[in-house]
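Notes for week 9. Today we move from apo structures to complexes. The key idea is that a small molecule is not decoration. When we ask for a structure prediction with adenosine-5'-diphosphate present, the ligand SMILES becomes part of the input, just like the chain. The input block below holds both the sequence and the ligand string. Read it once before you look at the output, and try to guess where the molecule might sit.
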Amino acid sequence: MKAIYLTGFMGAGKTTVGKRLGEVLQLPVIDTDAYIEQQVGKTIAAIFAEEGEEAFRAYEREVLKKLPTEHVVITTGGGIVIQEENRQFMRKHGIVIYLHCELHELLQRLGDDATRPLLMENKQKKMKQLFEQRLPWYHEAHITIDTTNRTVDDIVENIVLMLKSSRI
Ligand SMILES: Nc1ncnc2c1ncn2[C@@H]1O[C@H](COP(=O)(O)OP(=O)(O)O)[C@@H](O)[C@H]1O
Ligand SMILES: O=C(O)C1=C[C@@H](OP(=O)(O)O)[C@@H](O)[C@H](O)C1
Ligand SMILES: [Mg+2]
């Protein structure tokens, strides 16, 4: 089976849903952010603060190409779709699943979160701006699942059904 890439905005549940999906499908799960943190030896926040966003995007691009492309669930960072070569790579080598979530719920889910450096200031305004900019890129996925107001188990069940019926 080709790699399953979960994409979507910060707070869409990629990391959380991916873990559960891996258990259900009995596939290993790799989170690109966790992988980068381990390789670089710093948190994502420290990478942004000390090396800047460009350096982080370079790590993200390199890691994506290094990871396996078969029998794996890969949970990506929300900004992976910014780079066209990442979008092309994921579409070519795997099944891309976009976890959609409405902005109002994303804001609720990330209300108290302080781990995402892009949302440290003007959270509401920044989220809306990034969300609208990225939406067309997320929609390049093979499969879209709406996660708004749904439980993790319900979302995973929906993904499994979609995978069974898709011919990708
Ligand atoms: N379906 C869901 N319903 C409610 N809360 C969720 C759901 N999925 C994830 N969350 C919560 O939202 C936050 C962000 O989830 P996370 O998996 O880190 O998202 P992402 O990796 O897409 O940024 C976490 O606190 C998580 O528990
Ligand atoms: O959307 C983004 O640009 C980012 C999303 C984060 O991952 P999550 O989507 O898992 O929060 C993380 O990669 C970094 O803070 C940048
Ligand atoms: Mg995540």
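The chain has a mean pLDDT of 96.
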